[in-house]
Fold:
Amino acid sequence: MSNSEILLELRNVTHGYSLRAGSTLKVIENLNIQVGYGEFLGIVGPSGCGKSTILRIMAGLIKPLSGAVIFRGEVLNGTTPRISLMHQIPTLLPWLTVRENIYLALTSRRDLSEREKQLKVSELLELVELSGYGSAYPYELSGGMRQRVALARALVTDPDLLLLDEPFSNLDPLTSLSLIREIEGMWFDTTLPPISVVMVSHNIEEVVMLADRVIVLGGGRPAKILAEVPIELPRPRNKKSEEFYRLVDELFSLIS
Amino acid sequence: MLWEVLAAVALSWARIAAALALSVLAAIIVGIYSGMSRRVDRVAIPILDVLQSVPILGFFPLAVYVLARAVPILGYELASIFLIFTCTFWNLAFAVYEGARSIPQSMIEVAELSKLSLRDRLGKIYVPAVFPKIVDQLPASLANAFYFLAASEVIALGEAEVRVAGIGTLILRYLELGYHAGIAIGLLATALSIIAVYLLILMPLISYSDRYRFDIAQPPAGQRTPMIMELYTRIKSIHAPLKLEPRRIAGLTHRVFPTQLVNIRYVGSDIKRLIFIVFIIVLLVFAGPRIYANIGDVWTAVSSVAGAGVRLGLLSIGEALAYSFSRVLVCLALMLAISLPIAYIISEKPRVRNTLLPVLQIVASLPSPLIFPIISGFFEGGTLSRELGAILLMSLGSVWYVFYSTLGGFNKVHEEYRELARLYKLSGFNKFRYIYLPFATPSMVTGLITATGGAWNTVIVAERLGEGGRIFEIQTPGLGKLMSTLAEMADTPGLVFTVIVMTVFVILVNRILWRNLYDYSIKALRIHEQL
Structure:
């Protein structure tokens, strides 16, 4: 990838947690990851390999111990509305309606008028097919609907980069499949944000369904990049195709 | 004189330690037992709730009468320990109960499936789960014990007054003698001993209990450990053999209750009910005949108390009550105004938390009577100034309940929600309004309920404070002022009547106002549907 094709890059990033004895447990060490323009990058690995930490470093939520995050050619310092993160659990506020929950992402934006903000919220509600539910409270929604609200909130800021932290792991298989289709649809529609997506998951099938390229992490602590596998299957992808199975198998054998 | 002070401090500490140990043990038994079974829960919690709301003064005559008469020599000591116990037990019991109730159902099912013995259930699940809750409440209990230190060391028995030896009574004597150097040294020694206990016992215990918490995030590397933390990791390593591990406690119970208890796999609900009934029967068998034998005395007492109500005038009692209630309300508002911003800052900034929290916890354990003379001197001016002084005195005793429960509520905000605020760059105010305040409201209301009880308890001291012949009192009516005047005049029927009025009022307000506010906040915030 040449520099002009890179949206976000981790350069020699090392991060870890301090232990009681004063030593540091390194979760990742000298990691280099590039996210291309228009790329859907999947990161898979066993639990505890630092996938979520990587995502939070990309979001500017965690400052790594060493190394740098380069976003659009500049060093990233802290969070920006240009990068959105969708959590594993929907993290909706129970005391706010669906509309208010999505609006929360725009509360601090000064470049938009109140009307524009409300318009954006409506637009996103429509996109995730929840137009009729604006004044509902999260507890009145099903798990899949809540996750769609969280997706709408992540997209309402028109981010360039969307980070997905195990977005389907708390959903039943049917609901997660429909959400996968939804994200895929959004991905096809070039008029919609985001430019690129990074999805972290331990479910290999989900990642093969969606990603253009998969990074396999593992090898204990600190975690290393075990492999990079391009997924060049045509979209929409068929879970039942032989190619699909072959790729899932290949990734499985890399992890285990 | 120095030796006198040191001996008195040691004696007071011995009493407080005994009362605390008793409180922890009783809290574990009552709290876990209520948390384990719905049936006990339905009986025990309302009883605890009512007892908690009874002003501490109400316990004095009863405890003294029973204990001082029942046990000849040690009776007064026991009565004093019991009085301290009434200051330290309630918050512990409720914390243990809350801890026992919040154990995930799945964990209890695992215990059920693997047929764990009662001992293992306690030692492996319940005691470790409530251990951090107990540790969290210890500073508050300790602070409360010291707040009522002097009161718990002076035991009034009818006309006679017995003072047990301790730093509270020693300072009282110095006050009466006007011996200022003695007062200063006494207070200083108390403060230093509290700081020492805090550093050597409480802080290591708090840091140790962290491993039993589910929700503690690991601190990122590279952050400098504050000096005070380093200090106590070092202290911890010094007296490691003294560590009070739940496993050891469990081992201890094993030794105390050998085979019988251990072999009962699980106390069935029928057996529990039986134990409860047997307890009631035993109580009736032992206490019944005595009550019956003295029925005449009981009748005289009741009629003299009722007579006191008429004598004092219901209207003037009502007026005093109204004044005191408004003072309590202002006091609560003040405590919230102080606690909210500080707790918010502490929960938001780890660096501030690490340095400020230990300091605050030490300050919280200092006996506030230490500051009483300063406040009474400072606010002696006019009517309004005295009101302020009284409200400040009341706040000092219970502000910590509000503060710690609010902080606990803020700490319940999950990391993901904090990240949300940072992702969308919410301003401090919006973050507070949309995320922190709603999350903290239920615990905050719980803290306010406890603090109301505390404020009512301190009303008696705050509205009329006598020290060394000088009296600092409010110039408007007040129930606390009335009560301490009655106590000084040894008007027991009048005192009992006012205690009953206060208790009934506190319970009513608790039931009508606070419970509904709590339920409303839970409902309005849809906390039970928390995602």
